[in-house]
Amino acid sequence: MRRAFTLIELLVVIAIIAILAAILFPVFAQAKNAAKKTASLSNLKQIGTAAQIYMGDYDDTTPPIFWFDPNQLDYPTSLGFHYYPLLMLPYTKNEQIFLDSTDKFTDPVLTDPQGKGRFDPTSSYRYYFMGANPSYGYNYRYLNTFLGTTVIQGMPTRIFSGISATSIDNVSQTIMFAEATMKNLRGVSNPVGFAEINPPFAITTQNYLGWSGTFPDARSQGQLWGRYDPKSVLVTWFDSHAKFTPIQSLKAQGTTEQEVNRFWNGIQN
């Protein structure tokens, strides 16, 4: 005689499945998150390698954070702004490595005149956004020389040049790129990516307040922004090795600019 499952037995099986699902789903989510973090670390490693090749092609000179020429429109939607991702693009051959897979935010401030945002391929600012708002910021304050501000076609524009790579004494302990956001700057309220990161020590002569304020205001940590842990970021160091690093460990002990910014200025201490 065939015997069917009783209602009690079915409910027990359903309960067991529910318990297993409750146990396994977080594990799957953690595994998926870990895979994304590994992919992002690979992105940074490739960007660091591309920067090394760039420096080899330009007499050991670091890339500028950007250069501006409204008449140089090899990327027409860049508006003439060639931020570091566009300078690296001939070496990476891949636009996607400048974006972390979890960096999906856009912002009403970051749209073209037609309202098209950061990820719209038809935006008239497409390459401007790609360059200015990657997921990873560049330590431009110490790896560039600020040449001042000039007016180009009526637009006040900061001018930068690279520095000699040989001037960096401690290549394995000098930040080059790290996860970043434009949040809290220029009216941006969402954690979209940003091309710039800043050191912890205040530089009053440059109108920079340092790591003041309180998290989650991104200005309180130089626009560094951990997408996998709010207290840690993925970092590419000047020798191109990449590592997941606590944010506060990037602020060194001391009282002077040279001491506090030790992981940014390239000086061997």
Give an account of the 3D structure.
- It is a single chain.
- The protein is of the alpha+beta class and 269 residues long.
- The protein has one domain.
- It has helices at residues 7-57, 84-92, 126-132, 140-143, 257-260, 262-265, and strands at residues 66-68, 81-83, 136-138, 144-152, 155-162, 175-179, 232-237, 242-246.
- The strands form three sheets. A four-stranded antiparallel beta sheet has the order 3-6-7-8. The protein has a two-stranded antiparallel sheet with strand order 1-2.
- A hairpin with a 4-residue loop joins strand 7 and strand 8 (242-246).
Break the fold down into its secondary structure elements and pairings.
Elements (H helix, E strand, L loop, with lengths): L6 H51 L8 E3 L12 E3 H9 L33 H7 L3 E3 L1 H4 E9 L2 E8 L12 E5 L52 E6 L4 E5 L10 H4 L1 H4 L4
Antiparallel strand pairs: 1-2, 3-6, 4-5, 6-7, 7-8
